[in-house]
Amino acid sequence: MKVRSAMIASWVSVIANPVLAVTKVVAGVLGNSYALVADGIESTADVFSSVVVWKAMRVSVKPADEEHPYGHGKAESIAAVFVAVGLLGAAALIAVQSVREIITPHHAPEPFTLAVLLGVVVVKEVLYRYVRRAGDRAGSRSLVGDAWHHRSDAITSAAAFVGILIALVGGEGYETADDWAALFACGLIVYNGINLLRPALDEVMDAAVGEEVVEQVCALSVEVPGVVAIEKVRIRKSGMGLLMDIHVVVNGELTVREGHAIAHAVKQVLTESELPVEDVVVHVEPDDEGRLRAARYRRDEGDVKALKRGGSGDAGDDE
Question: Of 36, 103, 133, 280, whose CB count within 10 A is highest?
Answer without folding.
Answer: 36
